[in-house]
Here is the input.
Amino acid sequence: GSNIRRECRAVLRNLVLKTGETCNLTVPDAGRVFYVERVETTEPLRMHLRPGTWVPMHCTASGKLFLASMSLLERRSVLAHLVLSRATPRSIVVRQELEIELERIARLGIGIDNEELVRGMVAIAVPVLGRDNKVVAAVACHAPTARLSLDDLLTSEPHLRAAAESMRTILF
Here is the structure.
C-alpha cells in the first residue's frame, strides 16, 4: 500500500543524502526494467525519468543485474526476446558480448551502466533479495560523468547495499 511506498521513498531519500545523486528502486518486468520509486538529487544536472517508466534491460545497471542473476535457462529465454538496441555508442548490442558482460556482473554482484543508456550518465545497481534469496528488485544510483566517474560512484556501493537491506525488510 501507500505506507510501503512511503517507507521505500524514505530509504531512497536517505540514500540520496549519502550519495548526493538520484536513486531508484527498480523491478524486472516482462524483459524490461520498471522504475517503482525514484528520488532525485537536488543538483541541477540530472536525468529526468518518472516513476512508472520502463527502460531496456541490456543497457541499464538494474537490467544487467537482473539478467545476470537469472538461471541460464531463464536468461536465455529472456534474451531470445530482447531487441539489443543501441541507445548510445557504448550500448552492448552483440549477444555474445552481452553474455560475457553478464558473467562479469554476476561475479561482481553489482550492476554497472557505463554510459550505455544515456551518454554522460553512469549508474550502479545492487540487488534486493526476496524471501528465497532470489533477486526481486534493485536499488540503483546514477550520476552524470560531469560530476562523478564510474569509479567515484562505485565508492557508494556500501550505502546502496545498506539501502537494499532496508528495502528487503520493508518489502518482505
Summary: Residues 98 and 154 are 21 Å apart (CA to CA). The chain has a mean pLDDT of 94. The chain is about 40% helix and 25% strand.
